């Protein structure tokens, strides 16, 4: 079905939406720098037109935010927009006269909101089918399976050992029971598994997977996919370009193998690995380990007694006072020329500053 341009809207009631920012809570609309602050309201003077002028926010599928901001390094806030508004084709992104910056949320909450967004729109017909594509939507209390393969379908398995699969465009699969597995392989799909040992996989573009149960595994293999594992010993993997993997549980492992991917492990003894070019790995938990093996990768150890390693070409490391730092210097062909090990805060190595190995010596860099 062809999408039509939505007309300009004059609204006094605010509309809830999502907005992405850089690490400083700023953005550059039309190439102009604009600084925001949480809790403040901003008004645009002049014409309001989608993709051209006004304050922009995502009013459609929450994961559409990844079309404009990569998960890696992006801060996400709930916002309210009002006044004059204009939407792009399909109403996915809206420009507004007035914007209020609300609470900052993480990737996990955005994924949960995305799943709810899809499920709320997958209205059952005759109890078992979605209005969008006439595919089955089901739930089962014990061992049941729910499958939605049509466009816009939603699958939910909340019972013990339930499995939920959504392979259609914008489908959402949710398994909240023990050992449940949720898979969303369609475009913009969201998969959430909150039960113990649950596994969530999202392989579509901008797909998002979150697993909050103990030992849960979340995998996002699509471009700009986001994977979060918040349970103890959880594993989060983002293999798509500019994807983000976050493991916040004890002994959690986060891996980002795509170009410019970001891997973050915030739990105690967590491991963060970024193997793609220009990837960033951060371990903020106690005894955490951050490894960047790709070209010009960056590894950060910000937790107590952590370790950061950069083994790729022109890689760099930084660490909190007392953290171990490891660097490898390579030739353009990949040959190892030198290796170095040190401790942040000792022997003239400054804490919280990046270092790269040049001619066998650590040199401070940006």
From TrEMBL:
Region Disordered, residue ranges: 137-177, 198-247
Entry keyword Amino-acid biosynthesis: no
Protein name: DUF7666 domain-containing protein
PANTHER family to which the protein is assigned, alphabetical: COLLAGEN ALPHA-1(XXV) CHAIN, SI:CH211-266K2.1
Bias (Low complexity): 142-168, 207-232
Domain DUF7666: 15-112
Keywords annotated in UniProt: Repeat
InterPro entries registered for this protein in UniProt: Collagen_Structural_Proteins, DUF7666
Keyword match Glycoprotein: no
């Amino acid at each position: 079905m062809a999408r039509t341009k939505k007309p300009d809207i004059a609204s006094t009631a605010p509309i809830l939406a999502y907005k992405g920012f850089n690490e400083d809570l700023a953005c550059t609309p039309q190439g102009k720098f604009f600084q925001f602050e949480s809790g403040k309201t901003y008004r645009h003077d002049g014409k309001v037109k989608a993709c051209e002028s006004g304050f922009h926010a995502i009013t459609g599928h929450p994961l559409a935010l990844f079309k404009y901001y990569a998960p890696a390094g992006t801060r996400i806030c709930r916002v309210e927009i009002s006044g004059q508004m204009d939407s792009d084709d399909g109403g996915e992104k809206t420009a507004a006269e007035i914007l209020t910056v609300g609470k900052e949320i993480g990737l996990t909450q955005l994924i949960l909101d995305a799943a709810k967004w899809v499920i709320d729109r997958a209205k059952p017909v005759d109890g078992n089918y979605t209005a969008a594509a006439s595919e089955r939507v089901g739930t089962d209390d014990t061992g049941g399976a729910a499958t939605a393969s049509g466009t816009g379908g939603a699958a939910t398995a909340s019972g013990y050992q339930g499995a939920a699969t959504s392979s259609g465009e914008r489908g959402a699969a949710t398994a909240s029971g023990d050992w449940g597995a949720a898979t969303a392989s369609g475009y913009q799909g969201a998969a959430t598994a909150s039960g113990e040992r649950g596994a969530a996989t999202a392989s579509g573009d901008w797909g998002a997977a979150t697993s909050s149960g103990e030992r849960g595994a979340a995998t996002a293999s699509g471009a700009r996919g986001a994977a979060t594992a918040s349970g103890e010993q959880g594993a989060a993997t983002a293999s798509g370009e500019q994807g983000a993997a976050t493991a916040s549980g004890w002994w959690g492992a986060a891996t980002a193998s795509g170009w410019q991917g970001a891997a973050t492990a915030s739990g105690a003894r967590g491991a963060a690995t970024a193997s793609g070019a220009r990837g960033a790995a951060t371990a903020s938990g106690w005894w955490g380990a951050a490894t960047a093996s790709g070209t010009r990768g960056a590894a950060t150890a910000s937790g107590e007694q952590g370790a950061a390693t950069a083994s790729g070409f022109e890689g760099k490391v930084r660490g909190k006072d007392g953290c171990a730092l490891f660097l490898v210097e390579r030739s353009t062909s990949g040959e190892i020329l030198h290796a170095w090990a040190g401790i942040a805060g000792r022997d003239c190595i400054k804490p919280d500053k990046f270092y790269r190995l040049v001619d066998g010596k650590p040199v401070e860099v940006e």
